[in-house]
């Protein structure tokens, strides 16, 4: 592993993203990725497993899920919890709700509490508010500050203002 190379690639990517926003045609925002991609690939070749995650995130950010997915899979194979969330987002885009839910659950089980929020939202959208609330509460128990707010909002939308108020009070 090359110390600091992933951080360096991230910095290059951010700088080029800003330059791209200022200089590049808006229809082709991914031109700036080349320098960062080369550095990430060097880091991967040097054994930096985290660089695979950064490559996947870069491709996802540039709306190229087909290029992001293999990097997410490689990162997930290395045990990176955030990679499972990335795979879940890609599967959501192609309407594979079961696959997305399984990946969000795996990410949550591996420590990504934001995956619980996404999984809870999937339950809510599917008409399962009890399942959603259970997942939001699990996220709250793990210390996610947004989880109880989501429970309060669900109760408020359902017209249970007393329960919503009680839930919001738990947030403070």
UniProtKB/TrEMBL annotation:
Domain of life of the native organism: Bacteria
One Pfam family recorded for the sequence: TPR_16
Coiled coil: none
PANTHER family: ERAD-ASSOCIATED E3 UBIQUITIN-PROTEIN LIGASE COMPONENT HRD3, SEL-1-LIKE PROTEIN
Name listed for the protein in its UniProt record: Sel1 repeat family protein
């Amino acid at each position: 592993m090359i110390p600091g190379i992933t951080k360096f690639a991230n910095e290059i990517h951010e700088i080029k993203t800003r330059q791209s926003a200022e200089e590049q045609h808006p229809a082709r925002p991914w031109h700036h990725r080349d320098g960062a991609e080369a550095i990430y690939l060097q880091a991967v070749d040097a054994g930096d497993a985290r660089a695979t995650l950064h490559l996947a995130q870069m491709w996802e950010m540039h709306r190229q899920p087909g290029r992001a997915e293999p990097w997410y899979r490689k990162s997930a194979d290395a045990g990176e919890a955030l990679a499972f969330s990335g795979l879940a987002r890609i599967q959501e885009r192609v309407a594979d709700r079961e696959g997305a839910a399984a990946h969000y659950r795996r990410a949550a089980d591996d420590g990504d509490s934001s995956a619980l929020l996404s999984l809870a939202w999937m339950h809510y959208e599917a008409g399962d508010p009890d399942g959603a609330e259970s997942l939001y509460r699990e996220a709250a128990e793990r210390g996610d500050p947004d989880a109880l707010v989501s429970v309060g909002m669900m109760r408020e939308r359902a017209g249970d203002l007393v329960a919503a108020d009680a839930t919001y009070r738990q947030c403070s």
